[in-house]
Design goal:
By secondary structure, the chain is of the alpha/beta class. The chain contains 11 helices and 9 strands. The protein starts with a strand and ends with a helix.
Amino acid sequence: MLNVLGCQIHLRDSGSGQPVLFLHGNPDSSLLWEPVAALLSRQFRCIAPDLPGYGRSTAPPDFDYTLTGQARFLQALARELGFTHPIAVVGHDFGAIFAMAWMARHPEMIRAAVISNSAFFPDYKWHLWAKAWRRHGLGEVMMALMSLRGMRFVYRAGVPRIPARYIEDAYRLLTPGVRQNILRLYRSVPAGAFASWEADYLRAAKHVPVLVLWADGDPFIPKRFAERFAAQRIVRFERSGHWLPLAEPAAFANETAGFLRAT
């Protein structure tokens, strides 16, 4: 466990070589990256934290989940890990939002970025779940009613062949505290939050190489957004859904490794 800005951060650290920071999305944890890290740890040091308030990590009641807070957290995490040189970062879903906020504020800390099925644009129309979670009262009711059966429905809407064991493990980590932190995160990043950030990210992307790995079958984020990240390379997976690291771990690892070796 690392103490980062008052959070107790659980992380998985495997392999050796150039460090790569893996950032999961919602409602996941570092478990998301196990299949990919198992392949990449032969070449890279793979560091996958549970983000603040997710998985086995804690977050204080006043933790700042805004984009500014996300960038500040990753800067502090890098400092705690002893990184003084730029590192590679891989982000999926909200983990990619954390990564892009960090890149917008501290591009000097990132040597390459891999983005998978996320959005950082004020014109993105959030999915129905996100809209509901932002509503006080309704969000609390939905979180209280979220069952294992409901989790299966959500995950398999994104990836029909997602492993059953993964869903069960993810549900076990969906504690009352994590459910509350999900609401706090979404309410801290309202629909228009990216309006003053997109330009900073795009400026940073002129100097930081970006790879986009995109599942076109994502029911939450339209595939047209894959073109918006100023990426050097975009790889599309036409038959995969939202949780691409779980659906295509070998291809995800191979594309990531090739890109990082070339940058």
